[in-house]
From TrEMBL:
Residues 34-159 form the Xylose isomerase-like TIM barrel domain. This is Xylose isomerase-like TIM barrel domain-containing protein. The lineage of its organism: unclassified sequences, environmental samples. It comes from uncultured microorganism. InterPro entries: IolE/XylAMocC-like, Xyl_isomerase-like_sf, Xyl_isomerase-like_TIM-brl. PANTHER family: HYDROXYPYRUVATE ISOMERASE.
Length: 171
């Protein structure tokens, strides 16, 4: 699940994010959403994972923390998106790493910001991120956008024997 930043109003001296300005209403909507999801999911083991995309705003972090109070919600860490946004969400994600249930695995760069690269073509410490995914027993998706990048990523996993048996290599 992606968080939507919402609309903003441009004033002469600043931009005002409406969800931030009307935070109580924003959070009430999340309360209704969470309650409905819990009801619909019921006793199944289905969980909804919130993914980092282009940097969580402060009001989004508060809403995500509210969702994470429910066992029906978890986090997806898209490691390439993290790199392309200069790792700005990493402190938030790491502070909630007990709720990591899913990873999107691809390489990326900060300057210029690029993601969805083949494993090994960017700047990410892939081994560290994959170790965390394994520790969390998280599911992983290789998220490349070309067949060539997918093949190269699969080969990277094969060439790194530490990751041939973990949940990422098997997904």
């Amino acid at each position: 699940m992606h968080m939507h930043h919402g609309i903003y109003i441009t004033l002469p001296d600043r931009k005002v994010q409406m969800y931030d300005r009307d935070f109580d209403t924003y959070l009430q909507s999340f309360a209704v959403f969470r309650s409905r999801c819990e009801e619909w999911i019921g006793d199944s083991d289905l969980r909804i994972a919130v993914e980092n995309t282009d940097g969580f705003r402060g009001y989004e972090q508060k809403a995500i923390e509210f969702l994470l109070e429910s066992p029906k919600f978890g986090l997806t860490w898209d490691i390439g998106h993290s790199k392309a946004t200069r790792e700005q969400d990493v402190p938030f994600i790491r502070s909630h790493q007990d709720r990591l249930i899913h990873f999107h695995i691809h390489d990326g760069t900060e300057t210029p910001p690029r993601n969805h690269l083949a494993l090994g073509d960017g700047e990410i410490d892939l081994k560290e991120r994959l170790r965390l995914a394994e520790k969390r027993n998280a599911r992983c998706v290789l998220e490349t956008k070309t067949v060539a990048a997918l093949k190269k990523s699969v080969q990277w996993l094969r060439d790194n024997p530490d990751f041939q048996r973990n949940s990422c290599a098997d997904s």
